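REQUEST FORM: STRUCTURE PREDICTION
Request ID: SP-0412
Submitted by: Lab K.M.
Chain count: 1
Length (residues): 98
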Amino acid sequence: MSIAVSDEAARWYKKELDLKEGDAIRFYARYSSNSDIHPGFSLGISVEQPISPALQQQAEGIQFYMESQDMWYLNGYRLNVEYMDHEDDIRYAYIPES
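STATUS: Completed
RESULT:
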């Protein structure tokens, strides 16, 4: 399991959420519509500092992470967060681990 956030995606988050260097984005599992990997759940985000991060990556001065209690959501997958220039949006790609 891992998180990979492209620099372009990190810049998008900074612009959209008015983030500054040293801020952090938490990825978490939330009860919601469907995702590609878990019916009834989707990936949520919040701007908050980590408490017990199990996965983390720095990009463009922002820390992206997932807390240990949410790790079940990515079990068997890598999360790639990519920027889509033609839509000025991001995409979450779940890549199966082999």
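NOTES: Helices lie at 7-17.
Reviewed by: T.R.
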